[in-house]
């Protein structure tokens, strides 16, 4: 594999790497016939990100040496990020960037050609790996928002950098609400809640019902927003309900970007502020000493958003990411061992009026060898719930 990036596209590539570094510690690099794919996933399997750069993005692009199969590799994110650490330096001094993959020496070579004839060469070791793919389909999401990244970037600007999660919802009059999410507040200290409201006229597409709301991690969202703003792109958000992954997508003639983030499975603690009057219903109180549901996976119906690692048989030539939706009525069967695992993680009994503890639904991953003639989609592999990053 060999590709050459020139001009302002070098900074665009660097910005993409910075966005991916907000999610995972490892970078999956795979040259395809339809472009160079950069992917990552976080350790808790609750966030996945992918950038696909089309061949036209490069001045020169060769996916594989003639007569050889394309290589794919996995490298440490910190190693690759160190090459593009200073975006200001890339813009001012770097004229072109050459990336080549040598399977015999197990080295990923990145060369920066700077002004005045200066050339910087970085030799990064890598590991052979399977193809990391996310199985999702934005078309099945009932709610869609699309707006210039600048609009959403200005909306999240007031939120403090240390804020972990943010709630996105549709309020009265189809106004888009962004509110800082508070897991729990001390009764003696009033926590500050920041809320931003955006009119529907600022959105290029608004297809969502009033009252719906999801909560996701702000750090990863800011990473994609920063990239989309620098490239002057619009950001599309596809989502369903709490506990089901949300898909954030950007698209251009030269690149595609998809971020899939897990959402909190617990409902919004202040749903009455988002719903229309006729949708407001009192939430049932959880009685003390009540026993939580053991089969928590069956409650969220997230089967159509299964995430899987696929080993592709033959060459991959499709630019669009594979999408598979399982039947809505299918419910994963948990073995007795998985039940005992969930019992250990079961939340303790809560006192009425106490906010429920935060709980992210971990996305699902598995190692799958999918024959080309297989009519069925990838079989799900259950992963533990995670409260880690993502």
Characteristic terms for this protein:
disordered C terminus; single chain; elongated; five-stranded antiparallel beta sheet; alpha+beta; 390 residues; 16% helix
Structural overview:
With 390 residues, the chain is of the alpha+beta class. It has 7 helices and 21 strands. The chain has a 10-stranded antiparallel sheet with strand order 10-6-2-3-4-19-18-17-11-15. A hairpin with a 4-residue loop joins strand 7 (94-102) and strand 8. Helix 1 packs antiparallel against helix 2 (77-83), helix 1 (9-21) packs antiparallel against helix 5 (218-230) and helix 4 packs across helix 5. The radius of gyration is 22 Å and the shape is elongated. The chain starts with a strand and ends in a 21-residue tail after the last strand. The model is unreliable at 275-357 and 364-390 (pLDDT under 50).
Task: Indicate the topology.
Blueprint: E1 2-6, H1 9-21, E2 26-32, E3 35-41, E4 47-53, E5 60-62, E6 73-76, H2 77-83, H3 87-93, E7 94-102, E8 107-114, E9 119-125, E10 127-128, E11 143-148, H4 149-156, E12 165-170, E13 176-180, E14 195-198, E15 205-207, E16 213-217, H5 218-230, E17 234-239, E18 246-251, E19 255-261, H6 297-300, E20 309-311, H7 336-344, E21 367-369
Helix pairs in contact: 1-2, 1-3, 1-5, 4-5
């Amino acid at each position: 594999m060999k590709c050459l990036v020139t001009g302002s596209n070098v900074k665009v590539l660097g910005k993409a790497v910075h966005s991916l570094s907000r999610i995972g510690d490892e970078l999956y690099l795979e040259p395809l016939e339809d472009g160079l794919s950069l992917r990552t996933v976080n350790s808790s399997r609750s966030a996945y990100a992918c950038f696909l750069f089309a061949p036209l993005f490069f001045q020169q692009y060769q996916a594989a040496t003639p007569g050889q199969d394309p290589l794919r590799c996995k490298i440490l994110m910190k190693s690759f990020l160190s090459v593009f650490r200073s975006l200001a330096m890339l813009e001012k001094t770097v004229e072109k960037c050459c990336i080549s993959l040598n399977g015999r020496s197990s080295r990923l070579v990145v060369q920066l050609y700077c002004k005045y004839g200066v050339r910087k060469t970085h030799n990064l070791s890598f590991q052979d790996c399977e193809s990391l793919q996310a199985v999702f389909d934005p078309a099945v999401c009932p709610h869609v928002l699309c707006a210039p990244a600048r609009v959403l970037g200005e909306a999240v600007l007031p939120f403090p950098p240390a804020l972990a999660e943010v709630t996105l919802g549709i309020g009265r009059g189809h106004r888009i609400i962004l509110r800082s999410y508070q897991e729990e507040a001390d009764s003696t200290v009033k926590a500050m809640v920041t809320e931003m409201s955006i009119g529907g006229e600022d959105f290029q597409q608004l297809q969502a019902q009033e009252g719906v709301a999801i909560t996701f991690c702000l750090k990863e969202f800011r990473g994609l927003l920063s990239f989309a703003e620098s490239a002057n792109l619009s950001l599309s958000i596809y989502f369903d309900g709490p506990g089901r992954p949300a898909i954030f997508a950007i698209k251009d003639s030269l690149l595609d970007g998809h971020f899939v983030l897990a959402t909190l499975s617990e409902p919004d603690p202040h749903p009455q502020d988002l719903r229309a009057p006729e949708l407001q219903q009192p939430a049932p109180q959880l009685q003390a000493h009540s026993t939580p549901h053991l089969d928590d996976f069956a409650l969220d119906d997230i089967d159509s958003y299964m995430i899987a690692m696929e080993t592709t048989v033959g060459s991959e030539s499709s630019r669009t990411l594979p999408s598979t939706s399982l039947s809505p009525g299918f419910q994963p069967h948990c073995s007795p061992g998985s039940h005992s695992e969930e019992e250990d993680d079961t939340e303790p009994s809560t006192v009425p009026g106490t906010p429920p503890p935060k709980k992210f639904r971990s996305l699902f991953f598995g190692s799958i060898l999918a024959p080309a003639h297989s009519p069925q989609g990838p079989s799900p592999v259950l992963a533990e719930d995670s409260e880690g990053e993502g």
